[in-house]
Amino acid sequence: MLKAEQLAVYFVMGSINCKGMQTPLQVLEDALQAGITIFQLREKGKGALQGAELEQFARQCQSLCRQYSVPFIVNDDIDLALKLGADGVHVGQEDEALLEVKQKLPHAIIGVSVHTEQEMQQAVAGGANYVGIGPIYATSSKEDARPAAGVGFLQSMRQQYGNFPIVAIGGITGENAAIVKQAGADGVAVISELCQSNDRKRTVRLLCGAEG
């Protein structure tokens, strides 16, 4: 269902993350052309789209992802994911319980944010397809971000859970992505690093650990 390599460059975006000359859909298509491997729609924060506007925007994002054969993941909103037939959902510890999500979306990719060993254990035992570990470094993209954890917890979880798919998030850039992957992440999730990039092909290469 989900291969670890599909997490390589995990782009997370909502309409409020795109403040430049390009529209959010232009940013997404440019990122898809640049080579992102999975996309999560995270429409949260002040000024976020709601209702019919959100559904329309989500469908447009989903359509672009399908054109490039990239999985389309919805953050938190199980009802929206069901309505769209999204490829998957990503939930945090404060969101709907993993077991309930799996019952509602039995064939979807399900990712879970984890911050402790207990949360990791529960996510793996509960049938998550991958986990998101972070914030690795300090980040300004999420208003409710927890303190930066560094790579120590990531390294520990990789040692304990072998090949279980892990994506790292939080303050990751082209300059530190290789360090994060060496610590055990299958992929890196970014918001501003791609939203604000002037050369997304180069940014994706750097996030993959390749030379720019």
Describe the protein's architecture and organization.
- The structure is a single chain.
- This protein has 9 helices and 8 strands.
- The chain has one domain (about 5-205): Aldolase class I (TIM Barrel), CATH 3.20.20.
- It has an 8-stranded parallel β-barrel, surrounded by 6 helices.
- Strand 3, helix 3 (about 80-85) and strand 4 form a beta-alpha-beta unit.
- With about 210 residues, it is an alpha/beta fold.
- Pathway: Cofactor biosynthesis; thiamine diphosphate biosynthesis; thiamine phosphate from 4-amino-2-methyl-5-diphosphomethylpyrimidine and 4-methyl-5-(2-phosphoethyl)-thiazole: step 1/1.
- Condenses 4-methyl-5-(beta-hydroxyethyl)thiazole monophosphate (THZ-P) and 2-methyl-4-amino-5-hydroxymethyl pyrimidine pyrophosphate (HMP-PP) to form thiamine monophosphate (TMP).
- It is an enzyme of class 2 (transferase).
Q: What's this, in brief?
A:
The chain is of the alpha/beta class and 212 residues long. The chain is built from nine helices and eight strands.
Distance between the termini: 31 Å
- Strand pairing plus helix content: what structural class? alpha/beta
If you average the pLDDT, what whole number results?
A: 93
Low-pLDDT parts are none
> What's the CATH C level?
Alpha Beta
CATH architecture: Alpha-Beta Barrel
State the shape: globular
Beta-strand percent range: 15-25%
